Automatic annotation (TrEMBL):
Keywords: NADP, Oxidoreductase. Residues 1-139 form the NADP-dependent oxidoreductase domain. GO terms for molecular function: oxidoreductase activity, acting on the CH-OH group of donors, NAD or NADP as acceptor. Coiled coil: none annotated. This is Oxidoreductase, aldo/keto reductase family protein. The gene is yvgN.
Amino acid sequence: MEEAQKAGKIRSIGVSNMTPKIWNKFVPNFDVMPAVNQVEFNPYFQQKELRQIMAKNGVALEAWAPLGQGNADLFKEPVITKMAEKYGKDAGQIILRFEHQEGVTVFPKSVHEARIKSNMEIFDFELNSAEMDQMRALDKGKGMHDPDAPGVEEMLSQYDVHAND
């Protein structure tokens, strides 16, 4: 990827699923700092340690599963439902607004036109600092997927990214 960027074939390099452990192992050896790291991020898994590391390096975080992969518990959180009622929004809009205010890049997936429009209707209100703190307090510090799980590094190290070149 670095060679492609140097050759002018790409503008930026993005990575995904780089946890603090993986980041600290590999990124110091990169010639070019990634522009973005796409990782699981939602109110239940806010990636606080990783976000600090990335901020020091000027790297953006892009949320994978910003709505918690449709986790029903997340959408029923009293903190979120109360804010949704206050602002006349749905739970998904409150979640996306929180993430936006946290400086996280979000591209929520949807194939439904109404949901796509709804996901864009997060810019006409703002959560106050107390509400942001309430949202931050939802963090459980653990996601649904663990790129640091035993065996993942070994499995990926066997993968030949140039096999089909």
